[in-house]
Write a structure and sequence with these properties.
939 residues; alpha+beta; 10-stranded mixed β-sheet; 24 helices; 31% helix
Length: 939
């Protein structure tokens, strides 16, 4: 992808030309003909896994069978068991036994393993293997190849793709029903990426126009993909083997087959891309809550001291943070200026969130427990009544107000492996859904040769996977690509503005805001009996982005807006993914990094072949005025706009490629959404001395020191980290030091200390006593820690910070994120845990109280106000209270678990997006889709 249209500075042009001539060159001649027998240099040493299973479609009869008899369609759940089994089997893992826990990710399907063959056109074949049903798409023409990819996506994810295009368009309730969770989901997503139909089409046209031959090819590929989806959609409808959810939600009549599954369009792909990118590839936009925390700190301590306190919790460039680039490299970006200009802090108490929903009618007026209709259904469908009454996605499945950075990666250079070739274990943590948001596929055709995972609905190319002699993956990076501007409000008639005014000052004029609306209505269905209702969503859009809040600044009314560099460019990254799949483009680590430069979203990209490991951080990082503090709202004035900003196209100057964190050949790389490099600031709180990245870094560093790393040993390191309690491994030692600094007389507290210490010495793991036991070893210690952490944090920090500042900081970073259902921002049974919490603050504060060396410490001491004896007493009293809590109190139960069931409270549940449900599996904090790779040869 060439950088955006619009004015460009030398910085912008440098970012393009640094890619070399290959970036702007036409597609290679190899794209004209298929490689009939693509080379597979992995030689059986590539593996992958993606639970629960490849098949995400189920007919009405199959959904009914699942609800009545517990049966599931073929290949709907056959990857769930091996994925789950690694939890109990990793400690004895060898290279030879990896196959018990992962799929063979070799190219092609052996003749004796062919499960089915489909030929939707003469120029493409879809072969599925017996074991997993993964589609292996092989085309003789480019169009046929992509048509086959779309057809296979329809076979495996038709209902899911339909759901997500409606989520992206803000039309979920009209499509799937008015359940409160559905209302919440569209209300979360649509305001982040509100578009008109013309806006979506403009993005399609811009990709074609601005990217030369590759842009033309990308949109031709996308059209072929859509054509393939629609071909399957039509055939499935006529043949009556379409997903049964269409019947249950009232779109198709089960008896007459009347009704419609609406055709897919290219603009649907833009809507889908906006959902995926918003969830996993965004960064920034939290400047208003950060400003409110700063104001609270200044109110308590005064401006100078309060700012110091806030900065110490913000941890912008913490010297103790785990970093992906650990050789001292510095990549300054989004740093705090020495003397910030243009900051637009709100007046205290003046901030109000922008109203989104208007004109509620019927069931939409209910804030909880909306009325349910008595929907009449055929007797055979009685078991399916209300299957979506809690929403097509359970509440908490996605929350765009919380940090969404997930995924991990472990890569070791060949200098430290047993074979002399690099080893990688990596993958995205995208949550657990049924069907899964990702789908596995192999695509072989002219100019395309790859196997891996793609997000359903935008799977023209493999987005994370392997090529002929290389593999790649990504983690969410979350660097700051979204800023908050304060636009001065005005009225066109010249009257005095108020916070409700819908005009804003731009270039000396009063400009009207653009109002975007979406009206949704629904009727009760068999799946969702929520009574009829409707409402209207409304947002105001300015040149500086969508209005999120209103406030006053020094008494003058303003609107705060979110300006995201990837807004209006939701699918531009398609060019980078096209390159990843092109064997004539990616030939080594450097060419992979050049391809990654075409990804506009904020991701950390990792690469491995037989010779090198490499890393590159992608994203449209805007060039800001160096005097602007990007962590706080900024005045919407010319001096503080992004350099060379074109508001119509939302383009600007972007930091050149050599200013993005990157490396080739470091001894090892780890990432678990931790800090990328020194001076490269993240967009929010949470990158301090204790981060879940430490769980990987400590283990991989030890492996590298010993040498002889294998696929199995690196997988063991990942798996051990996946069952480890971060608090128990990295903060509990300091807690125990404080507790042992003075006598403990209470027998109950003494016992609790002994239990916690025994757990710590045994690895501080949340691990079953044996495979399938559904009971943790050290279960009392785990229960005590789960109860103690939130109590301890509050009693340590709230007295010193005061209620206002403590609550304001909690609004920016949650206190805890344990896997159990009652904690954390990710919701229950989500797998991902220990990403964001107050672990770093507790660690630094306790070490300071103990008199130990702390680099980048907090500006104040909080536990016992810095007095060790008082701190000891605080920990003893909170531990006493925590130890007395019963399992039923700590784990109160939910729709899936009985109160007191610790294992179930932690357990991963595949959140049903369709009509098929799955059994819970043991908690593991690991990627959803995961690869284990080691290439012994290269082209």
């Amino acid at each position: 992808m060439r950088r955006r249209t619009g004015r460009r500075t030398a910085v912008t042009l440098a970012a393009v030309f640094a890619l070399g001539a290959s970036a702007l060159a036409p597609l290679p001649a190899a794209a004209a003909a298929a490689d009939t027998d693509p080379a597979d240099h992995c030689q059986g040493q590539c593996a992958d896994i993606l639970p629960p299973g490849e098949n995400g479609n189920a007919t009405l009869a199959e959904i009914l069978g699942n609800k009545v008899f517990g049966t599931r369609p073929a290949h709907a759940s056959d990857q769930l068991g091996p994925y789950d089994a690694l939890n109990g089997g990793y400690r004895s893992l060898t290279d030879d036994t990896l196959k018990d826990f992962f799929n063979d990710a070799s190219f092609g399907v052996p003749e004796d393993q062919v499960g089915s063959v489909t030929r939707p056109r003469d120029d493409v074949t879809i072969t599925r293997d017996k074991k997993t049903g993964v589609p292996h798409i092989k085309g003789t023409t480019r169009y046929g190849t992509e048509y086959g990819a779309g057809y296979a996506a329809g076979q495996d994810r038709l209902w899911l793709m339909d759901l997500f295009r409606h989520i992206g368009r803000g039309e979920l309730t009209s499509f799937a029903g008015g359940a409160l969770a559905n209302q919440g989901l569209e209300q979360e997503f649509w305001p982040k990426a509100p578009y008109t139909e013309q806006d979506l089409q403009d993005q399609v046209d811009a990709i074609r126009k601005n990217n030369g031959a590759r842009g033309e090819q990308a949109m031709a590929d996308a059209q072929a993909y859509v054509d393939g989806i629609n071909a399957y959609r039509e055939q499935a409808k006529k043949g009556r083997y379409f997903p049964g959810e269409y019947v249950l939600t009232g779109h198709v009549d089960a008896i007459t087959n009347k009704g419609e599954i609406a055709p897919f369009k290219l603009t649907d792909l833009i809507a889908l891309a906006s959902v995926v990118g918003g969830l996993f590839g965004n960064g920034g936009g939290g400047e208003v809550p950060q400003a409110l925390a700063l104001l609270s700190a200044q109110q308590k301590y005064g401006v100078e001291k309060g700012t110091q306190v806030w900065e110490s919790f913000r941890e912008r460039n913490d010297p103790e943070a785990a970093m992906t680039l650990h050789d001292g490299q510095s990549f300054p970006y989004a740093e705090k200026p020495k003397n910030a200009e243009g900051t637009a802090l709100p007046d205290r108490g003046s901030v109000t969130p922008e109203q989104l929903v208007y004109d509620r009618k019927g069931a939409a007026t209910a804030k909880s427990d909306p009325p349910q209709a008595d929907v009449q259904a055929p007797k055979k469908l009685e078991p399916l009544k209300g299957v979506f009454q809690d929403g097509v996605l359970p509440r908490g499945s996605f929350d765009t107000t919380q940090h969404r950075g997930m995924s991990n990666a472990l890569l070791v250079s060949g200098k430290h492996t047993a074979s002399g070739h690099p080893v990688a274990v990596f993958g995205p943590q995208t949550g657990y859904f049924a069907p899964q948001l990702l789908m596995l596929q192999e695509i072989q055709g002219p100019g395309i040769s790859a196997r891996g995972a793609s997000f359903a609905g935008v799977g023209m190319y493999v987005q994370l996977g392997r090529g002929q002699d290389y593999a790649w993956s990504a983690t969410s990076a979350s660097q700051d690509i979204t800023d908050t501007y304060a636009v001065d409000l005005c009225n066109a008639d010249g009257s005095a503005p108020t916070k409700d005014s819908t005009g804003y000052r731009k270039d000396g004029r009063c400009v009207p805001m653009e109002k975007l609306e979406r009206t949704n209505s629904w009727q009760p269905t068999v799946a969702d009996p929520t009574a009829a209702g409707s409402y209207r969503m409304q947002v105001y859009r300015t040149d500086y982005g969508v209005v999120t809040h209103r406030a006053t600044v020094k008494g003058k009314p303003v609107a705060y807006t979110a300006q995201r560099s990837t807004y209006r460019h939701e699918a531009d990254s398609i060019i980078g993914f096209q390159m990843f799949n092109d064997p004539s483009y990616v030939k080594d680590a450097k060419s992979f990094q050049q391809a990654a430069q075409h990804i506009g979203y904020a991701f950390n990209w990792f690469y491995a072949d037989s010779r090198d490991i490499a890393y590159y951080n992608s994203g449209l990082n805007p060039v800001r005025n160096p005097k602007v503090d990007p962590s706080l709202p900024v005045r919407a004035e010319k001096a503080y706009e992004w350099r060379d900003w074109d508001p119509k196209a939302n383009t600007s100057a972007y930091t050149p490629a050599d200013q993005h964190p990157q490396s080739v050949g470091q001894d090892y790389y780890i990432s678990w959404n931790n800090k990328q490099a020194r001076d490269y600031d993240s967009a929010g709180f949470g990158n301090g001395s204790v981060h879940r990245g430490n769980l990987l870094d400590d283990r991989v560093r030890a492996l590298v020191k010993d040498g002889g790393v294998t696929r199995a040993s690196l997988t063991r390191a990942m798996s051990e980290a996946a069952v480890t309690d971060l608090r128990g491994e990295d903060v509990l030692p300091e807690l125990l030091k404080v507790l042992r600094s003075a006598p403990v007389d209470d027998p109950a507290v003494k016992t609790a200390v002994q239990q916690l210490d025994a757990w710590r010495k045994d690895g501080a793991q949340r691990r079953e006593t044996g495979p399938g036991a559904k009971k943790y070893a050290h279960s009392d210690a785990v229960r005590i820690m789960d109860a103690w952490w939130p109590l301890m944090i509050e009693k340590v920090f709230r007295p010193g910070l005061g209620d206002g500042l403590y609550d304001a900081l909690k609004a920016n970073i949650a206190v805890d994120e344990s896997p159990s259902a009652g904690h954390g921002p990710t919701g229950s049974h989500a797998g991902s845990a220990f990403q964001y919490g107050w672990w770093s603050y507790a660690d630094k504060d306790l070490r300071a109280v103990l008199g130990e060396k702390v680099r980048g410490g907090l500006a104040e001491r909080y536990c016992g106000e810095g007095d060790l004896h008082a701190c000891h007493d605080t920990l003893v009293s909170t531990l006493r209270e925590a130890a007395a809590k019963t399992a039923e109190q700590v784990y109160p139960g939910d729709d899936s678990c009985k109160a007191g069931d610790q294992w179930c409270s932690d357990a991963i549940i595949q959140r049903a997006v369709g009509g098929i449900t799955h059994d819970p599996i043991s908690w593991q904090n690991r990627p959803t889709y995961q690869q284990v790779v080691e290439f012994p040869s290269h082209r």
